[in-house]
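Q: Could you fold this chain for me?
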Amino acid sequence: MIDFGFDKIALIGAVALIVLGPERLPRVARTVGHLLGKAQRYVADVKAEVNRSIELEELKKMKGQFETAARDVEQQVSKEIHQTTAELEKSWADADPLSPSYENANAGWTPVPVYKHPKKNWRLKRGAMPQWYKQRHGIRGKAQSGAARVARFRPPRTGS
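A: Sure. Below is the predicted structure, expressed as structure tokens.
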């Protein structure tokens, strides 16, 4: 870039004073200052945009590397799980007393019935206090809005 020292700036100022005159020189200097400020802001904006685009490219590259590493870990864990599951099922089948390959199956041994879930709705939250107790003692089972509560407990109209 162009290097301006104090002596060069003083020489340019003296020539501008002679050429423009003392009346117009402050206005021209102010205009040149505004233009230089705008140019510096424009250059700073361009630099910031270039830096943002470079950082965005780096982030995209890092994201790709991270996704690749995560995919590799997922595949490795999945492979280990499948392998372990297969080994477990094999060993379970070898030790299962209900399987036909078990030694006691032909010796008059009766199989144990399999546990059957009672099919309760396990997603439904159940409180420790039973429903019959709540109903007998007047414990509120459902929430009401403020308007519904006012309407419920409003005294009945009399007269007209």
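A (continued): Helices lie at 6-20, 25-95, 131-136, 146-153.
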